[in-house]
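Annex B. Sample input.
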Amino acid sequence: MPAPSTTVEIGFDLSALGGPFFILDDAVQGVLDNTTYTLGGSVFVDVTSRVVSVNTNRGKSRQLDKFTAGQANIVFNNQDRAFDPLNTSSPYYGQIIPKRTTRVTTSGSAVFYGVIDDWNLEYDISGRSTAGAVISDGFTLLAQQVLTAHTATSQLSGARINAVLDRSTVDWSATFRDIDAGQTTLQADVVTDSTNALGYLQLVNQSEPGKLFIGKNGYVTFRDRVDAPTSSNLVTFADDGTGIKFTGVDIVYGSELLYNFIQIERANGGTATASDSDSQNSYGVVALVQEGLLMNTDSDAASLASFLLSKYAEPEYRFDSLTVALEDLSTANQNSVLGLEIGDIVRIKFTPNSTGSQIDKYASIIRIDHDMIPMSHRVTFGFETLDYASLVLDDSVFGILDDAYLGF
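Annex B, continued. Sample output.
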């Protein structure tokens, strides 16, 4: 199979490009509700024909890390200086500036949505010249915004995230949100003046705890802690012909996620601790301390401490990452891979060197990277495994009694 088709578009100012504009009563350009011919403003212009390569990275490396701003690097052929802001004969003259919105799609599925931070022009004396666009997603914008002093309302974590996004100094479009309700009730804490908006949102997420990230479609996305896995209709990756084949896999077994003493410090409240003496006797004391969390009661803090201890008291044998070559897959499998998003659950089946018993695990996606060049499109997923998952009633895998956690 060939690599799927990728499209790169940049939001340019239509008036500076001279159209195409809506023309009243015109049979083609006067059709109401069309998106090709508009009255003006910014429109996405397809620049795919000039693309040399695309690289995108979104997510985080480890379970307890915070999700950071996603990044994309797109390299364009610039032989004709089309992407040189000083070239007055460029078809994009006046448009090659920072903060232009850019989106990348493959076979109609979103891959990345963000704004350009920098243009890097490389001119070779041979005449082979390129222009590189460095792009960041919406977390970069949130990291540059601050909150004015106010006292929050006691509310669920999802409502708190929406309240922050609604504040005048943030003013994040309601259209570009996908926010779960949340399970943790947060206290009516006092937010000091000039508090960093992204930092505060990440504290809210940590207090849940859930997943807060910018989706591949550019939406601020929040998944609360009961975004429960289900085993039906999961994408399966396998090396035995029973799932989507992969080209590489990394496995980690160690102490990077080993914590046998948990301390949760609640803002304006008490401190909860939980410890595992057996783990401490085997591995020594390894502490995880989380400070200033916003849950409303000390009981919630104690529940979180117990939950984290149960999850991290023993070393974890886990799939760290897996890489798929889309050009090696059927169209249906390509679409299945492209449809995956951070937080989705997959199944991984792997027998190293075709020796011994098969490793068969479920995992939640925490990172998605794309590397695209002509004729090749590689997707790499990073994971947290689900050896310790919330119980889901009636599910054939996650609903087995005494084999999953009831949550808190």
